[in-house]
Amino acid sequence: MIFRLMLLFLISAVPVRADDLGTINFDFDSDRLDAEALAEVERIAAKLGENPLYGTLVVGYTDAVGTTGYNFDLARRRAENTARALTAAGVPVSRIDGIQSKGETELLVAVTGPERLNRRVTVTLDDILAACRNFRQINITQASLGEALQEDLIRRATTARNTYAQLAASGGNGPAFQMAGAAREDCGSAVGYGMNERRKIEYSQRCLCSSARLSKALGN
Fold first, then answer.
1. Close Cβ partners of 17 (under 8 Å, ≥ 6 residues apart)
2. What CA–CA distance (Å, rounded) separates 126 from 208?
3. CB atoms within 10 A of CB 137
4. How far apart are CA 184 and CA 203, in angstroms?
5. Cα–Cα nearest to 167, from 94, 66, 81, 62
6. Domain residue spans of the chain
7. pTM, full prediction
8. Residues 6 or more apart from 208 whose CB is under 8 A from it?
9. What's the CATH superfamily of 18-130?
10. DSSP string, 60-92
11. In what order do the strands lie in the sheet with 18-25?
């Protein structure tokens, strides 16, 4: 029970921080990216290239003109076209964590008529490290140690080791490869320490933290 509660803490109590990366605006009733929008896509792609520990979320919006259903579909098409433009600009598909439509539900300018600022796609980013900022925030105590935790540590160590080997074989050198290496070391150490050894708790915390970062880096 204690171990299950600890896992719930890891999943729910550590929110992933999202930051604005850029905004693309659209002409009225259009899902086409004009020259200005494509230039913004190139800027966003360049910024992502400088920050390998980020994934992206692409969200489309409309102004208040039109029906709710039509606007939801239009916003979705805007987001999808922006995501395609990002990949054409060199952003790997794996770095795009999600594509969403919010239609007319979140107006920047509260007007019922046409408004260019409301016709937009936002690109936000998630910091992989934000999946677990500090291993010490994971609530593992002496009472948490036991067979269930050890089995989970072994599973995580195996996953990290296999992932690292697969990425190494394919010439990987990105954030997932880095996170797999860290998780392989942390989880391997955690498995090796005995239940009564002082560092068992510390490396169990490190293992769960590194595993969370690896999962984020892989887009899971």
1. 126, 127, 130
2. 19
3. 13
4. 11
5. 94
6. 18-130, 136-217
7. 0.55
8. 7, 10, 132, 135, 138, 140, 156
9. OmpA-like domain (3.30.1330.60)
10. E---S-S-HHHHHHHHHHHHHHHHHHHHHTT--
11. 18-25, 120-127, 54-60, 96-101
3-state secondary structure of 126: strand
Q: Determine the 3-state secondary structure of 19 from DSSP.
A: strand
The alpha carbon of 205 is separated from its chain's Cα centroid by a whole number of angstroms, namely 21
Query: What pLDDT is attached to residue 17?
Result: 37
Query: What is the per-residue pLDDT for 178?
Result: 85
State pLDDT tens for residues 152-191: 999 999 999 999 999 988 876 677 888 899 999 999 999 9
Find where tokens 């979705």 sit. 76
Does 127 have pLDDT greater than 90?
A: no
Cβ-proximal residues to 87 (8 Å cutoff; 6+ apart), any chain: 93, 96
